[in-house]
Amino acid sequence: MNNFDWTSFTRKIAIKAKLSDIYNAWAIPSEIEKWFLSKAVFYDSKDQKIPHDQQIEKGSRYDWNWYLYDVTESGKIMEANGNDLIQFTFAGECLVDIKLSTMSDYTVVELTQKYIPTDDLSKVNIRLGCDSGWSFFLVNLKSVYEGGLDLRNKDISAKGMVNC
Asked: How far apart are the first and last CA of the chain?
């Protein structure tokens, strides 16, 4: 494992949907809840809550919650260009880049999480855990936007499944 990169990873997926729809899937609170979160609250740079149907902007901050887990992830939107790039802090001081591009009838989502600490706990929880989590949620993004099926488990009695 000497050559394994513990500090970052990249995952890509092609989704048969318009680029603008996939951008909004990340940038509008009501849209990100359709495939990723149970609750997404964003605040503008003046600390005012962003309406649930409006796009976030650079300098916004967020509080995110998931089904089945009693945690709130808080972070900041470092970039949101309104078209094909969003960057946010995640899992502490890590950065996540969402880069969108087109390929034929597809929008390609390229997700990179970087600046992962290299202590043993971060290697397990952030590098390996986030990689697994993002892989599932990118597949769920594809499922929701291509066919409407949300693959997330929302039943607390079935916690710990592959579908979170």
From this structure: 27
Q: Provide the residue type at 158 as one letter.
A: A
* Overall pTM > 0.90: yes
pLDDT of 105-122, one tens digit each? Answer: 999 999 999 999 999 999
Helix 129-147 to helix 19-27 angle, to the nearest 10 degrees?
130
CATH number at 8-158: 3.30.530.20
CA 15 – CA 98 distance, rounded (Å)? 14
Which two three-digit tokens encode residue 69? Answer: 């887990």
Pairing outcome for strands 106-114 and 94-103: antiparallel
Domain assignments of the chain as residue spans, ordered by start: 8-158
Q: Which of 5, 8, 4 is nearest to 134 (CA)?
A: 8
Beta strands in the chain (DSSP E): 8-15, 39-43, 61-66, 69-80, 85-90, 94-103, 106-114
Which amino acid appears at position 42 of this protein? F
Query: 48-103, pLDDT tens digit by residue?
Result: 999 999 999 999 999 999 999 889 999 999 999 999 999 999 999 999 999 999 99
Q: Answer for the pair 14, 42: CB distance below 8 angstroms, yes or no.
A: no
Determine the Cα–Cα distance for residues 134 and 7; give it in Å rounded to an integer.
15
Q: Determine contact, residues 164/153, Cβ cutoff 8 Å.
A: yes
